[in-house]
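Dear Dr. H.,

I hope your travels went smoothly. While you were away I took the liberty of generating a structure for the chain from your last submission, since the lab meeting agenda had it listed for discussion. I wanted you to have the full record in hand beforehand rather than looking at slides cold. The sequence, exactly as received, is reproduced here:
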Amino acid sequence: MQVAEVDIKKSRKGSENWPMDTVPFYIPFTIVLSIAGILFFIFVYKQGYEQSVIPPSIERDGLLLRFTESQECFAYYKDNVFAAHLIDLEKFSQAKLDSCYDTNSKKKPAFKISIVAFGSDFGIPPIATKNYDVNRQPEEKPAPVDVTLLHQNKLYRGEMRFEVQNT
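The corresponding predicted structure, in token form, is as follows:
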């Protein structure tokens, strides 16, 4: 059996020079990696920020759903049967609006609600929340909401129109 001879001086010299040979490579690599990391962080920050921006009308839209989809407001609810977007015209009154939308604060959005029935004229006057100022123009007029109207046990197509202040 022969044992291979290893030149200890060459082996030691090679391992001593190895870090010195690679340092010139590590300096530009570290700079490029740092710049790439910073650019990645900026990209993620901007993309994440744009994804989490809350639309300013989200509160208003949520409140509008209350009028068409809540049994406490105008949606049909009798004998444990509830139907969203089916407006019971017997419930469409100022007293019902005052009970389902509390406006103790002037900062809350104010609404004026009117109902239009297609193919028939019920002569339903518009109603408004307590904090709606009739002397001011509305700040927003969101798109009307298509609803089904229940009047004297007959169904009619129609829409609910809104005017909004204090947005």
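Two observations you may find useful: The radius of gyration is 35 Å. The chain has a mean pLDDT of 82.

With kind regards,
E. W.
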